[in-house]
Specification:
With 173 residues, the chain is mainly alpha-helical. It has two domains: 55 residues; 109 residues, Cytochrome Bc1 Complex, Chain D, domain 2 (Orthogonal Bundle), CATH 1.10.760. The chain is built from seven helices and no strands. α1 packs across α2, α3 crosses α7 and α5 crosses α7. The longest helix has 27 residues. The radius of gyration is 22 Å and the shape is elongated. The protein binds heme C.
């Protein structure tokens, strides 16, 4: 994904520079390379960084975090847990144990929503499931791989997990 964005931005920046610099002064001089680099930085990396930071700090805009989490939830979780999180998605009947009702996480624990435990259970990269096999996909790994892993992958995985946990917190009954 990042490669595609970078490539599209390269073309965009080359066209932009062609337009700003009259054709007489065009060339592959050092200036142009420097301008193109700066343009790329502005077009690709700042918005990307902004997206990551915005996702990593959803506390400042709780409404947005819940909306982002809802979007993720429908996309990645609803097949098993159902669009409302009640454990009744189209794939649920094929699973044993069945997918949990995620609107009652706190109710099952006497009114307490354990943020770290729930985040770790969605993440799945750390710890062994208490009851042998795990039917849930290892989301931490999936989110990480969506952008090719590495430190960007880790940041992306963390922000998805954060959004999802906040969303689950918001739908507790
Ligand atoms: C392939 C089906 C499937 C998908 C997709 C799925 N889950 Fe699950 N999930 C399960 C099953 C089955 C369980 C209960 C047993 C287990 O842990 O294996 C479960 C349990 C959970 C639990 C533990 C609840 C508790 O009270 O301890 C949480 C939290 C959870 N899922 C969140 C999610 C989130 C968030 C997503 C989307 C990113 C998701 N699940 C996607 C099948 C799925």
């Amino acid at each position: 994904m990042v490669t595609t964005i970078t490539r599209a931005a390269s073309t965009f920046c080359a066209r932009l520079l062609d337009r700003v610099q009259p054709s007489g002064q065009r060339g592959l001089g050092e200036d142009r390379i420097r301008h193109q680099g700066a343009c790329l930085l502005a077009v690709v990396w700042w918005p990307l960084l902004g997206m990551i930071l915005a996702a990593a700090q959803p506390q400042s805009v709780p409404g947005e975090a819940v909306r982002g989490g809802h979007h993720d939830f429908i996309r990645y979780c609803s097949a098993c847990h159902g669009v409302e999180g009640r454990g009744d998605g189209p794939a649920a009947s094929a699973l044993q144990p069945p997918p949990a009702d995620l609107t009652r996480i706190a109710q099952r624990r006497g009114g307490h929503f354990p943020v770290a435990e729930i985040r770790a259970s969605i993440d799945g990269r750390i710890g062994v499931p208490a009851h042998g096999r795990r039917d849930m996909p290892v989301w931490g790994e999936r989110f990480e791989e969506m952008v090719g892993g590495g430190s960007l992958g880790e940041a992306v995985a963390r922000s998805h997990l954060q959004l999802l946990v906040e969303y689950l917190q918001a739908i507790q009954q």
